TrEMBL record:
Protein name per Swiss-Prot or TrEMBL: Biopolymer transporter ExbD
InterPro entries the record matches: ExbD (IPR003400)
One Pfam assignment: ExbD
Entry's family note: Belongs to the ExbD/TolR family.
Taxonomic superkingdom: Bacteria
PANTHER family in the record: BIOPOLYMER TRANSPORT PROTEIN EXBD-RELATED, EXBD MEMBRANE COMPONENT OF PMF-DRIVEN MACROMOLECULE IMPORT SYSTEM
Membrane topology annotation: Single-pass membrane protein; Single-pass type II membrane protein
Length: 192
């Protein structure tokens, strides 16, 4: 009478699966925002140069910026907010001239954020000084100078920064008589 039919499940058409997955991959790659890492544009000395330069610096020509392990900034041993460094560095370089040296000491435990803020303040200070020298010498801003003119302005206003990492920041805070709580700005200032 009635014959039993066998029902077969139809197979899925998977020929376009690879195309769809690649299109989704490309879509997500294009629409995803990538966070840009923080960084500093610095030209480092060549790696094959093994010897360090040793120079004699007079005390009046040295500005020491110390970042303690408590992330406090000391300018010549005195606690200072980071946003004041630009003005202090500008005034220091104007007063001392080409013989100046800015020394940065950072404790290994210090936060990178305060270090980046400090570097940005120094870059801003040197940028202003070089812009001022360019206006005085050539009558136009530093950014609009030719390469030769820029090099001349860099000779007039050299960027002299020395960096030291390690226990120097801790010993500097102790040598100036600044305790860890004072360096962090939470303690009261004590004078001997």
């Amino acid at each position: 009478m009635f014959a039993k039919r066998r029902h077969q499940v139809p197979g899925l058409n998977t020929t376009s699966t690879a195309d769809i997955s690649f299109m989704l991959l490309i879509f997500f790659l294009v629409t995803t925002n990538m966070d840009v890492d923080k960084g500093l544009t610095r030209q480092l000395p060549p790696a094959d140069k093994q010897e360090q330069q040793v120079s004699q610096v007079e005390k009046g020509t040295l500005m020491t910026l110390t970042i303690t392990k408590d992330n406090a900034l000391l300018v010549d041993g005195k606690p200072t907010p980071v946003n004041k460094v630009c003005g202090l560095a500008e005034a220091f370089v104007r007063r001392v001239g080409r013989k100046h040296l800015v020394k940065i000491e950072a404790a290994p435990e210090a936060n990178y954020d305060i270090y980046f803020q400090l570097q940005n303040q120094l870059v801003m200070a040197y940028g202003r000084l070089r812009n001022e020298a360019a206006m005085k010498t050539y009558g136009k801003p530093f950014a609009k100078l030719t390469e030769e003119q820029r090099n001349h302005v860099k000779d007039i206003c050299p960027q002299r920064i020395a960096e030291d990492y390690g226990q120097a920041a801790v010993s500097a805070a102790n040598a100036y008589g600044v305790g860890e709580t004072e360096a962090a700005g939470t303690g009261k200032e004590e004078r001997p």
